[in-house]
Design goal:
- Strand 4 (109-112) and strand 5 form a beta hairpin.
- It is built from four helices and six strands, in the order H-E-H-E-E-H-H-E-E-E.
- It has one domain.
- By secondary structure, the chain is an alpha+beta fold.
- The mean pLDDT is 83.
- It has helices at 4-25, 44-47, 85-94, 100-106, and strands spanning 29-36, 55-68, 78-84, 109-112, 115-127, 130-139.
- It has a six-stranded antiparallel β-barrel with strand order 1-2-3-6-5-4.
Length: 140
Amino acid sequence: MLSATNQNGIMGAALVRAADAMLRSLGGEEVRLLLPAVVMPGDASSELGLVDPGVEEVSLSPVVLRALQTSSSGPRRRIELLIPSSGVAAELQARNMGSAQDLFESALGVVHGGELFHIEGMATEYFGGTPYLYRVVVVD
């Protein structure tokens, strides 16, 4: 017999796989997250901040995009990105980041369809203490 903790962990892992499959079946697209580059040249001008380190593009998929309503005085478009945790987990490990919130807060923006969007906010969906889906709202 599994303990409640083990059972929630197994169910959480299953839900991660299910979210990934669901978003793929819904026509999951790809977005690119723009992150500041961390590698700087070793000369003095970079130490003075005279060199732009550039950006690094990270592809996330599958992602489902949903248009949200906007107020007449707000941004032109608001889009909710539904991203499975499986698509984010590898990037967290590669960048030695503790949470998806850290990753999205450090991002300079999101590119989709050749357009740059600003990240307005994000929320994490959990089951049994396991994150399985991220809802990221972007605006232009």
